[in-house]
Amino acid sequence: MSTHLPTADDRDPDSSARTERLRHALLAADFTADGLLDLLGAPAYAALARSETVPALRATRGDGPLETLVRLFLLQRPVAERRAAAALPVADCLADGWLVRDGDEVRATVDVRPYGGPEGQDWWIVSDLGCAVGGAGGIRGVGEADRAQLVLGVGGASTTLAGITTRTPVAKALDLGTGSGIQALHAAQHATRVTATDLNPRALRIAALTLALSGAAPADLREGSLFAPVGEETYDLIVSNPPFVISPGARLTYRDGGMGGDDLCRTLVQQSAAHLADGGYCQLLANWQHVEGEEWHDRVRSWVPSGCDAWIVQREVQDITQYAELWLRDAGDHRAGDEQYAARYDAWLDEFEARKTKAVGFGWITLRKSGADSPAITVEEWPHPVEQPLGESVVRHFERQDYLRATDDAALLAGRFRLADEVVQEQVGLPGSEDPEHVVLRQNRGMRRATKVDTVGAGFAGVCDGSLPAGRILDAIAQLVGDDPVLLRDRTPASIRMLIEQGFLEPVAAED
Length: 512
Prior knowledge:
By secondary structure, this protein is α/β, with parallel strands linked by helices. The chain has helices spanning 13-28, 33-49, 54-59, 65-74, 81-85, 90-96, 144-148, 156-164, 182-187, 201-213, 263-272, 296-301, 320-330, 338-354, 391-406, 409-414, 455-463, 470-481, 485-491, 493-501, and strands at residues 79-80, 99-102, 105-108, 111-116, 122-127, 170-176, 191-198, 220-223, 235-240, 276-291, 308-319, 357-369, 377-381, 416-419, 423-428, 438-443, 450-453, 465-469, 505-508. It is globular.
């Protein structure tokens, strides 16, 4: 890992001008997410995401500006200086340290990865060489000390967090553990002020490069662990892709939390309430232990601070051997020799055995500071595909919780509802049978949930268009099926609440 990093000083007009010229050169060469796909083709583009570079090298054998930039910044290959000069302002890049000269060739000091913003913006994420895709296991020739300070670029975890984050305009946002700065870059589009923190000072410098090169406003960058750098300040939005890996020790700053077990994630969740403004959101990724004799739902639910609603989604579970092997490979320990690999594997299993951990869960945690005396806490397992981005779905989830908390059964039956967009009904049964065995309502958007309903539930949902109160719809169904309307009204509110909570039905305001 090169210890050298480029300079992009927003306080220096000359440096800002040089960065802007570099940005325009990248755009002029179509060094963008779409441009890469067009140049490389889908197979080579996908291979690059797996840290396989041979197809991309074959696709960039030409001498055009885009091929040159791909070889420099994505494939980390030196190119002739005269060739680089046809693609970008070499003098500016040498002055600010994006490139270094090696004889009559130049090479990049950092990885610069095109990244498409949510509204079609052309951005670039800066990271350490070899660390943009595929994790630190893709880098060669660095020692333990260097590897510990690596700054990774865009991966599945960071894009997942960006996708689930609420994008309501806010005054203040905090990116805790900013890394390469991708979450701060997103937040800069809808927050007046962005603060970004990291324990690794190298990460703060790289985050500043990401923001500057992408044309975003600079963030308030602060060094330190967890909430220590922000004192008692509060924010409307807190996002964090923390070093959540549950490991023996803290070898790698970018992934190992340095606390025992899942204590770092627990601490982050519990301390977040004190740093949230009223109505503010905290959204983070986390790992949690599945401990022998303890329900994981209860474990993670206990982390939620008072006065906060929460939505916790477990997306994946790995047994302790799978988990250890994943992160041993990430650290490159599988190349350390059989004896050393076995010793480190043993250390992971010793750690899990001491904590009675049988598996590790991965998922999303969203908190909202509601101040409610009876907070709404949803803890669920959902390993199925979802439609990203989910930020609006997250907001609507908590709006539905507010509605259900404030609405008793009488008000529920007096309310009006509409079927959510792109909900379809499926009937399941034997071919040729007169009646289905059961009916399934399925969402084609957002969380893409599916739920079984009886014929009353299916009929109720199908009629909901916002024009009639729920009670009147139930009375009509009772008359149609020959049921007692009073009994039907008594037993149906729980089913209606479930359909509202899961997003199949949406309350219609009186003024609508």
